[in-house]
Automatic annotation (TrEMBL):
Transmembrane segments: none annotated. Pfam families: HAD_2 (PF13419). This is FkbH-like protein. NCBIfam families: FkbH, HAD-SF-IIIC. Residues 186-339 form the N-acetyltransferase domain. It comes from Streptosporangium brasiliense. InterPro entries: Acyl_CoA_acyltransferase, FkbH_domain, GNAT_dom, HAD-like_sf, HAD_2, HAD_sf, HAD_SF_ppase_IIIC. It comes from the Bacteria.
């Protein structure tokens, strides 16, 4: 094992090598390769837990894909990188294509050179020896606390995203014109019991569009959902290609004169859909209707600059600090309407 499994966050995507890792043998040298014992079960377990999987292999792409199809495993792997480039480049390409942080990836490979090359270029990537494959389902970083409906459907959501991207590449108009063809519906509702496990998952998994980086447990979120002094909102998105699942979370502490937005987060998967400010503007509208001031806590770091831009674009200005947190406030004079191509439903 090249890196410790005691890392701060969960693995979102496991990247597989092929030769002598996923299967026994070298595809371009041996007359036949065989699937390694236990590999198929590990792949299925991770898929059910909502952990994405991809491939970084130095191989002939068409031949390797045909072999995966013979094993019945092709559909499990998103954006496979089967080429002769360095593994570090392949891993980076996977993270970029899936729009997740590269330090949420793990690589499993039988070659120590390949693991060390990736670890040198991307120290945050967890690098595992192929001999550790049977241990993967037991490792904490591959074991989410809850498995939600969104978890089980995560791969299909990404496949839907690939269809959207393909449709956008073929579309001849502007970005807004294309978004108008998607028939998007954005839903905002107070969190119910069925939402709380997904809310915890969002809190733990989302770090690029997380206003404070704070993670909340299921028990804490359940307390907020039941508290008259708090408002816990969840947001979902769907379009003609299918559901994105629950993609946003807002936690508001409701004081008599000031509401404080303790947490605002949005899944990175919807960054390109122009919906990043919809939940925030909804909360701003609720505060204005309640006749209170609205402040937001924000912890600046190298990951969440986009969230800071979201606040500033919505008219928030810094009015003070609380420990490491910046306190931002909006005068609520300028609240944006949702984009014309988006239907918003609240309840």
């Amino acid at each position: 094992m090249t890196a410790s499994v005691d890392r701060p966050g969960p693995v979102k995507c496991l990247v597989w090598d092929l030769d002598d890792t996923l299967w026994d043998g070298v595809l371009l040298e041996d007359r036949e390769v065989t699937l390694r014992p236990g590999v198929a079960e590990v792949i299925r377990v991770l898929d059910e837990r909502g952990i994405l999987q991809s491939i970084a292999s130095k191989n002939h792409s068409e031949t390797a894909i045909e072999q995966l199809e013979r094993f019945g495993l092709r559909d499990y792997f998103l954006v496979p990188q089967i080429c002769w480039s360095p593994k570090s480049e392949s891993v980076a390409a996977i993270a970029e294509s899936l729009n997740i942080g590269i330090d949420t990836l793990a690589l499993i490979d039988d070659q120590s050179f390949e693991r060390e090359e990736v670890a040198f270029s991307h120290p945050g990537v967890l690098c595992l020896d192929a001999g550790d494959v049977s241990r993967i389902p037991e490792m904490p970083v591959f074991t989410p606390r809850f498995v939600t409906d969104d978890s089980r459907n995560r791969r299909s959501m990404y496949l839907g995203a690939e269809l959207r991207d393909a449709a956008e590449r073929e579309f001849g108009g502007t970005s807004d014109d294309f978004l108008a063809t998607l028939d998007m519906t954005f839903t905002i509702s107070t969190a119910g019991e069925a939402d709380l496990r997904r809310a915890e998952e969002l809190s733990v998994r989302t770090n690029q569009l997380n206003s404070t980086g704070i993670t909340y447990s299921y028990e804490e979120l359940r307390g907020f959902a039941r508290s008259p002094g708090h408002l816990l909102l969840v947001a979902g998105l769907e379009d003609r290609f299918g559901s994105y699942g629950k993609i946003g979370l807002g936690l508001v502490e409701r004081g008599a004169e000031i509401w404080t937005l303790k947490l605002l987060l949005m899944s990175c998967r919807v960054m390109s859909r122009g919906v990043g400010t919809v939940l925030l503007n909804h909360i701003m509208r609720l505060a204005r209707e309640a006749g209170v001031r609205l402040q937001a806590e924000f912890l600046p770091n190298d990951r969440n600059r986009v969230m800071f831009v979201t606040y500033r674009f919505a008219g928030f200005q810094e009015v003070g600090t609380r420990g490491d947190l910046q306190i931002l406030e909006s005068d609520l004079s300028r609240i944006q309407d949702p984009p014309a191509y988006l239907t918003v439903r609240t309840g």
